[in-house]
Amino acid sequence: MNRRTVTLTVGGMTCAGCVLRVEKAVKKVNGVGDASVNLATEKITLTYDPSTTDLGTIASAVGSAGYTLSQPTAVTGRAAGVMEAEAPQETAFRRLKKDFILSAVLTAPVMAISMAAMTDWFARAVPLTPSDVNTVLFLLATGVMAGPGRHFFALAWKRAKHFAADMNTLVAVGTGTAYVFSALVTLFPRLLSAAHHAGHVYFDTAATIVTLILLGRMLEARAKSRTTDAIKKLAGLRPKTARVVREGIERDLPAADVRNGDIVIVRPGERLPVDGIVERGSSSVDESMITGESMPVDKKAGERVTGGTINLSGSIEFRATAVGSETVIANIIRLVEEAQGSKAPIQALADRIAAVFVPVVMGIAVLTFAAWATIGGLPVTAAMVNFIAVLIIACPCALGLATPTAIMVGTGLGAAKGILIKNAESLERAHRIRTVVLDKTGTLTTGKPTVAQVVALGGYDERAVLRYAASVESRSEHPLGKAVVETASLRNIGHGPVESFTSMTGLGVRAVVGGDAVAVGSPGIMKEFAIDIAPAAGAVYRMAAAGETPVFVAVNGELAGVIAVGDSIKPGAKQVVDRLRGMGIGVVMITGDNAATAGAIAAQAGIMRVIAGV
Question: What is the pLDDT of residue 494?
Answer without folding.
Answer: 87
